Amino acid sequence: MGPSDASTGPGRRAGRGIARSGARALRAFWARAYVRVVAANRDLSWILFDVALPVLGTAAYVFVYRSLRAPEAYLGFVTIGGAMTAYWLNVLWSMASQLFWEKQSGNLEAYIVAPAPMMAILAGMATGGLFMTTIRAVVIVAVAVAWFRIPLVAVDPAGVAAAFVVSMVGLYGLGMSLSSAFLLHGREAWHLSNLMQEPVYLLSGFFFPVRALGFWVSVAASIVPLTLGMDAMRQGLYGPEAAMALLPLRVELAILAVLAIVFLLAAWWLLRVMERLARREGRLTLRWQ
């Protein structure tokens, strides 16, 4: 076999094909993430809707706990919960419902026929949303801490960081899964998002230790990664006893890691189903269908 055969052999051609596919996936990922990264600076309406309003809700719980002379850790609980509302709203309205909005605006057809995997587009959407929401969450925590002088000194900083990372991967994996599921339900996406928003505030324990709901209710609510994520972050901040922990920190981290893998695989499978239906029936990308 001569040098020209080696340069054009099946193995090399396959390698070039994989490299081109990877480059296209990276470009699609960054193109979708870039929109949300830039929007964090251009559309400042989020200061009112995503910062001021959650801070007011958090303030109400702070005043309630202070009037009851609750331990200082409870003020930290509601601060973390107030910051996490920004992530839940972002996942619900800008991830789970996003493909439905893209369909209504006529962009979904372009996504389907684009020579890049839909997972790359959804991953870019999730990464951009995570960046944008993290800015808002940091502002919420800073305002609440400065206003109420809430102590947020972590007893286990590594545990807090690990809990945040795995819960965010799981949460945005859930959002990626729901995006295809909501699209398959057509115009019901709006109602499904409304239906899921408020109950999760209660069942995931955004403003109180989730263990207060009872062990089995808390375990059932753990299907939403924020439930164990917030419980683990509170343990890392105040210790398991003060946080009224549901499960040991390491156990919660392991469960969150499993949830993250399961939701990402579910997102990949549901996307394949959605793309197959879109190409076979030709109606899924049509508006008002």
TrEMBL record:
Its main location: membrane. Keywords: Cell membrane, Membrane, Transmembrane, Transmembrane helix, Transport. It comes from Carboxydichorda subterranea. The chain crosses the membrane at residues 44-64, 73-90, 110-131, 138-155, 161-184, 205-228, 253-271. It is a multi-pass membrane protein. Belongs to the ABC-2 integral membrane protein family. InterPro entries: ABC-2_transporter, ABC2_TM, ABC2_TM_bact-type, ABC_2_transport. Pfam families: ABC2_membrane (PF01061). PANTHER family: DOXORUBICIN RESISTANCE ABC TRANSPORTER PERMEASE PROTEIN DRRC-RELATED. This is Transport permease protein.
